[in-house]
Amino acid sequence: MAGDPPGSGSAPGDPIPLMAVGTAAAPHPPRPHYDAPYRLFLATSLTLALFGGFLLAILLPLAQTLGWDWGARWQALVQAHGQLQLLGFAGLFIAGMALRLMPRFSGRDLAFPSLVPALIPLIGGSVVLRALAQPWGTGALRDAGLALSAALLLAGALAFAAVVWATLLQRESRAEATAWYFSFGALAYVAQAALNAAIVVEMVRDDLALAPLAKDDVLIFVQLFGFVLLFLCGVATRAVPSLTGNSRPDAPSRAAATALAAGVALYAVAAAWAAYHAPSQATARAQDAALLLIAAAFVAVIWLSGAARPRANRVARASRTSFLFVRAAFLWLFVAAVLIFWYGVPALSDGRPLDAYATDAIRHTLTVGVVTMMIVGMGMLVIPEFAGRRIQHPGGEIAVLAMLLALNAAAALRIWPALEGLRWIAMTRFWPMAAAGAFAIAAVAAFALMFLQSYIEQRTPGWGSTDALRRGRSPRT
Ligand code: HEM
């Protein structure tokens, strides 16, 4: 179970541990367990989000509406925004939390702990280098930056996947279906790094300012649906049922993980074939069918989590506002599934892929409504700093509710112009997007500040203790 110390859980049927009596032998010192530096992952993720991805989310739409002449650099910065958000913000947050949670889920120590300190320099370094080299670099310097960035990402992906697989795919692991979500997700992470390397080789060889758009779409798809959403659905199906008073059925959850992974693989192969060879009705239909399979898997995940059919409210009173983010994320996941059916069924029957507006609407429903919402909500529920914070700052509810409102407004405003499609092509369509960026950055900044404040305060001894809870205030006062 989440929260169990690694290796300490006992399952029904385990032998009852016997205590030695008589002359006491010197007790074994407790075996030190390696804890991944989740705070560093969080801090890097939030820094890249606030000063990179979300900042660009405001500037890119403003550049269009206010007529700033960014030329071809605008599209390069769009690609930088996508990579900063998917691999920097969401990716490092997910990696940090996965490294922290895996020993608790599986009852096993984290494998290859010596690889963990390399992950932030490799992945974070890769994303920063890419965001600087592609839009701003020129000539050999740009090429070297892009090539180094791709190599760092590939090394980081292999190291991360090795840790995930070696921790979860052991016979004694108790990670159940979660191991399937995470292992498929790690496979997607390696696949996207390899595809990214191939794209970068092409950019350098042919001196391209942008990643070719069709190939970039495949890359983003594998990053978002394959890596980010598989991990997110793995955590959701693991942690949420116990909070909603539901059981955690293992076989159906494995089936949902497999359907999601199969949908991602089918889409990626068909879209890559279309991008590298020739698009056809067959590749388009395969992509549409894959999307419908993924939408069905989303509905299954919502059902398995129990978020839509709570039997009991097991969320502690002080955490109930934070849990509203998780509920909202499931609602947006349902909206994404509906949008996929809405756009995907006619596209399948016509034999064409989704257009750019539909893709953008689904993409940002997922990235803002589901991923950002879940990061903030789950973060407040499981990060230790926030547990102590609820004790020390019990009146913080209003701020948390304002963040919830801001993130929902951001998701709605971001997808509105995309839903309008060709009916709204004037530059005014970028105003709601800029407003969405402002709402989102405000919510994420508030989350980051709360984390930072709690991190500083928690150095006071007993700050998050049950004693402090009983007294309801800081141990110093
Ligand atoms: C409310 C916040 C956000 C705003 C205002 C925003 C804005 C934008 C804009 C204007 C584009 C370009 C669309 C076009 O080409 O016309 C874009 C693309 C994209 N965004 Fe966002 N975005 C936001 C949040 C996010 C988040 C949180 C993620 C991921 C976690 C994300 C991932 C992407 C990706 C992958 C692309 C496509 C990049 C490419 O074409 O290579 N966005 N976004």
Description:
The chain is mainly alpha-helical and 477 residues long. It has one domain (38-60, 73-457): Cytochrome C Oxidase, Chain A (Up-down Bundle), CATH 1.20.210. It is 73% helix and 0% strand. It contains 14 helices and no strands. Helix 2 (73-106) runs parallel beside helix 4 (139-168). The longest helix is centred in the N-terminal third of the chain and has 34 residues, at 73-106. It is globular. It binds protoporphyrin IX containing FE. Residues 57, 60-61, 78-79, 81-82, 85-86, 89-90, 216, 220, 360, 363-364, 367-368, 371-372, 410, 414, 433, 436-437, 440 line the site of protoporphyrin IX containing FE. Protoporphyrin IX containing FE (HEM) binds at residues 57, 60-61, 78-79, 81-82, 85-86, 89-90, 216, 220, 360, 363-364, 367-368, 371-372, 410, 414, 433, 436-437, 440.
Determine Rg (CA atoms, Å): 23 Å
Task: Label the structural class.
Answer: mainly alpha
Percent in strands:
under 5%
What is the fourth-level CATH superfamily? Cytochrome c oxidase-like, subunit I domain
Number of helices: 14
Per DSSP E runs of 2 or more residues, the count of β-strands stands at 0
Oligomer, anyone? single chain
Described by strand count, sense and barrel closure, the largest sheet is: none
Order of helices and strands: HHHHHHHHHHHHHH
User: Which fold name corresponds to the CATH topology?
Assistant: Cytochrome C Oxidase, Chain A
What's the level 1 CATH class?
Mainly Alpha
Distance between the termini: 35 Å
Q: Return the domain count.
A: 1
Spell out which ligands are present: protoporphyrin IX containing FE
Q: Show unreliable segments.
A: 1-26, 472-477
CATH architecture: Up-down Bundle
Mean pLDDT: 90
| Overall form | globular
Helix fraction bin: over 70%
